[in-house]
Each structure stands twice: as structure tokens, then as C-alpha cells.
Amino acid sequence: MELSARRKSDALKNRKRTLLLRRYTKEISHTDFLPGGDIRPVLMGLVGEVGSVLAAGKKLDREGSVFSGYRATIQEELGDTLWYFTRLCERLNLEIDAVFSAAAKDGRESGYAHTTRPPHAALLALGGALSDVLTVRRRRADNFPLLCAFASQYLRVVRASRLSLEKIAEQNTKKTTGRFLNANFNELPRFDDRFPTEEQLPRKFKVVITQRESGQSYLQYNGVFVGDPLTDNIGDQDGYRFHDVFHFAYAAVLNWSPVFRALLKQKRKSNKKYDQEQDGGRAVVVEEGLTAWIFSRAKKLEFFADQRSLSFDMLKTIEEFVQGYEVEACPLSLWERAILQGYQVFRKVHKNNGGIVYGDLKTRSIRYRPLRLRDK
Q1: Sheet of 204-211, strand order
Q2: Over the range 40-55, which residues count as b (16 or more CB within 10 Å of their CB) and which as e?
Q3: 235, exposed or middle or buried, with CB in 10 Å at 0-12, 13-18, 19+?
Q4: What is the DSSP-derived secondary structure letter of residue 253?
Q5: Are 67 and 57 in contact (CB under 8 A)?
Q6: Coil, strand or helix: which one is 360?
Q7: What is the rounded CA–CA span in Å between residue 302 and residue 347?
Q8: 67 pLDDT tier (thresholds 50, 70, 90)
Q9: Phi/psi at 194 (nearest 5 deg)?
Q10: Above 50 in pLDDT, residue 111?
């Protein structure tokens, strides 16, 4: 009876895992932009992610309890590993759920009980299994057992990390679709729709940026000067005096900018919670700090000239920056859009020492027009 109950339990777990992996495969299929006819980029990606899993374990050994974000880190890295492994199976015409089912049946993944950290043996065994995976080739008969062996070691690390395959797949789906798929504007959040008009960001706006002989930049909104005159405040004149352009981009594309709200005096004061937590001084500091951090990296890359995308690492750091604030609901692809549009306009403003910035929250875009004599 006990054996029969165990078999039923194993069969149920297997069905759940099969459904989970089939759903996961379907949901991430549109996020794969790697060459379809070549498995080498996928293998290189898999090597990198397994290396990150091992690095997280090494860092935990080195830093101990100081590495408080260990479980979140290894969950993300295991998710990225799963993504590349799934894409590899697809290119080899193997079903990912069949691979994991076979791996689970051999029992090897249950060799470790839950512990506070993955045993070194489990992590090293994952690396060892990866070395065998690197020998796979299209139409090789022994691909399946090599992939099963890797999946088995992967499940051991998942189990020892006190994580679940379901949570790993769920987080990775959210991460990859948010990064690589274009957002549906109709489904994106608008953070102040239910507030009075005077507490909403203007749905369309026009800001005139001028520079005086002193080198200071000035902003005009509806013919009124807003904010303080700015200089670059650095020996290497880099145009940071025009950085408010980025706040305009956040407002237009993300429909979020505590800084722009403060400039226009359109904080959501009718709701004390929003006024203090979302529009308050700390939110302003977060936005300003994030903007300065991005700028320091953009400066080394010619302010993203000729770039169509941003590094995933940068976008993930941005995601960490804004945790706890309403804008965390925006997908990474929307952040990428806001930043690239912002820098496209910034480069023109910097080149011409001013200009006019138009924002449209409905189309989630900003654009630039040079100053004419009557604008000055």
C-alpha cells in the first residue's frame, strides 16, 4: 500500500512538472532571438548561467550570512539556466518535459535533503554534467541521456536550495517576457488615472530648455520657469545640466516621475500614502540617483548613440533600484524604451545647448524640436 501511494504521488508530481514545463516552454518561446540554426550561442549562454550559479555558491561560502540575497540570486540564475537549457532541448528536437521526467525517474535528484545551501558536491556535479552537455550535436543518438544527466543534477541543486521549479519558471517567465517582448500599451499601468486632474501628470507637455551665457540651463513649462538653473557641476563638461530630459522621458514613457511631479507641483496630495511614499523626497532621491547612475554609464558609451538596446545587467539593476515604488510594475522593455528615447533627445539638446521637448503619455514617447528665435 505504501509503495502504491508513493507511486501515485510520484505520478502526480510528474504530471504537474510536465504541465509546468510545457507552459513555460510556450511562454518563453517568443523571447528567443538567438540564431535558430546554431546551438553554439545557446551552449555558451548555458555555460555562462551555470557559472553564475556556481559563483553564487562561492560567494555564499566567502561572505556567509552577509550575502543576504543568496536565495533570490540563485533562484534568478537557475531561472536563466532553465531558459538556455529549454532552448537547447528545442533546437535538438527534444521535449523538455520528457527530459526532466526521465531525470526525476532515475532518482538522482533526490540525493540531497533540503539544506540551507547547496552542497559543494551538487554544485560541482552540475558543472560536471554541463561539460558532457557541451558535446551534444544535432542528430546525435546520445543527446537525450546527456541532457537527462544535466537535468538530474539541476534538480538536485533546486532541491538543496529549498526552491521550487515552479517558482523558478514563474520568475524567469516574468523576467524574460518583460525584457524582450514589446509591452501592450493598453495593459500598462497609468499611475494617476483615478486622481484629480490637478494631481495628474499632464497627458501632453511641452518644455522649453534654454542656456544662458553663464552656462546655466533653464526650464520653461507653459511660459513659466520651473526648477532651478543647472550647471554640469563637474570639471569635465558633459551636458548633465540638461539631465531633466530623462525625467521628462520617464514621465512620458513610464507615466512616472516624482521629480517632474515636484517641478510642476502636481503631487498626489489628496492621498497621504501616495504623497509620502510615491511622490515624497525619498522617491525623488531614488529617481535622481538612478538617473545619475545611468548617465555615468551612458557617458562611456557615447550616450547610447546608435544603440537599439541596453544591457540586461543595467536593466536588472534599475529593477532593483525601484523596488517598492509603483514604477516597479513597468516591464524592463518599457524602461529600455524610456532610456533610449531620453538619450536620443538628450544628445540633440546637448548638441544645440537647448531645445523644446514634447511628451505624450498616451503614445509613451518624447520628441525634440530645435529652438527658434521666437522661442528664446
Answers
A1: 224-230, 217-221, 204-211, 355-360, 365-369
A2: eebbebbbebbebbbe
A3: exposed
A4: I
A5: no
A6: strand
A7: 9
A8: low
A9: -90, 10
A10: no
- For 281-339, what is the HEC assignment? HHHHHHHHHHHHHHHHHHHHHHHHCCCCCCCHHHHHHHHHHCCCCHHHHCCHHHHHHHH
User: CA angle, corner 107, sides to 103 and 109, nearest 5?
Assistant: 70
- What is the greatest pairwise CA distance in the chain? 90
Q: Which residue has the higher pLDDT, 376 or 13?
A: 13
Instruction: Give the pLDDT score at 35.
Output: 87
Grid cell 548633465 — which residue?
A: 240
> Is pTM, for the whole model, over 0.85?
no
CB neighbour list of residue 335: distance below 8 Å, 6 or more residues apart: 254, 315, 318, 319
Residue 340 · residue 308 · CB < 8 Å: yes
Q: Which CATH architecture has domain 2-181?
A: Orthogonal Bundle (1.10)
Q: How far apart are CA 163 and CA 168, in angstroms?
A: 8
C-alpha cell at 184: 501592450
Compute CA distances 327 → 70, 172, 249, 363, whole Å: 25, 19, 13, 17
- For the chain, residues classed under CATH 1.10.4010 are 2-181
The kind and range of the H/E element at 53 are helix 40-63
Over residues 6-54, the pLDDT tens digits come to: 565 666 677 888 899 999 999 999 999 898 888 999 999 999 999 999 9
Task: List C-alpha distances in Å: 99 to 93, 109, 148, 180, 344.
Answer: 11, 13, 5, 26, 46
What are the cell numbers at 193? 488615472
C-alpha cell, 241: 545640466
Q: Return all residues near 141 (Cβ < 8 A) that are at least 6 apart.
A: none
Containing 35, the helix (H) or strand (E) segment is none
**Is the distance from CB of 69 to CB of 159 less than 8 angstroms?**
no
